[in-house]
Amino acid sequence: MLNDSKTFSSFSIDDLDRAKEFYGGVLQLPVRDTPEGLSLETPGGGRTFLYRKPNHEPATFTVLNFQVGDVEGTVAELKKRGVKFEHYDMPGIKTDEQGIARGKGPTIAWFKDPAGNILSVLSDPRA
């Protein structure tokens, strides 16, 4: 029944204009306005839908992951574009001065969108 249906992910934001500038301008993803919100075309043919929610509360977990061949290079480039990376120092997750966690699982770095949702760049096992 569902095994041949198309899927997409979605999450809320608080400001469509700020989200469009961030996802389209800073992250350089194709962004399309829809009557209900924004449609992001993500690498590899995926799609993510962002919708404005008046009482939006940022997700406390990672809502969107970007697999990249070079985490360090991607972090450096995104920092040049004004992205600030999260720093963690807790059991199981410790990031370095660049905001990159290494060693347990994939190399990964987390950052937030303008609505406070958590995104990441992480090493692509195929790279």
Q: What share of residues is helical?
A: 10-25%
Question: Got a strand count?
Answer: 10
**Rg from alpha-carbon coordinates:** 15 Å
Mean pLDDT: 93
Sequence of strands across the biggest β-sheet? 1-4-3-2
Major sheet characteristics: 4 strands, mixed
| N to C succession of SSEs | EHEEEEHEEEEE
Beginning-to-end CA distance, first to last residue = 34 Å
Q: Strand pairing plus helix content: what structural class? A: alpha+beta
Task: Kindly estimate the percentage of residues that lie in beta strands according to DSSP.
Answer: 35-45%
Low-confidence stretches: none
Please specify the SSE layout and strand pairing.
Layout: E1 9-13, H1 16-26, E2 31-34, E3 37-42, E4 46-52, E5 62-68, H2 71-80, E6 89-90, E7 93-94, E8 100-101, E9 108-112, E10 118-123
Parallel strand pairs: 1-4, 5-10
Antiparallel strand pairs: 2-3, 3-4, 6-7, 8-9, 9-10
Question: Could you explain how this protein is built, in words?
Answer:
With 127 residues, the chain is an alpha+beta fold. Helices cover 17% and strands 36% of the residues. The chain contains two helices and ten strands. The protein has helices at residues 16-26, 71-80, and strands spanning 9-13, 31-34, 37-42, 46-52, 62-68, 89-90, 93-94, 100-101, 108-112, 118-123. The chain has a four-stranded mixed sheet, covered by helices on one side. A hairpin with a 2-residue loop joins strand 2 and strand 3. The N and C termini lie far apart (34 Å). The mean pLDDT is 93.
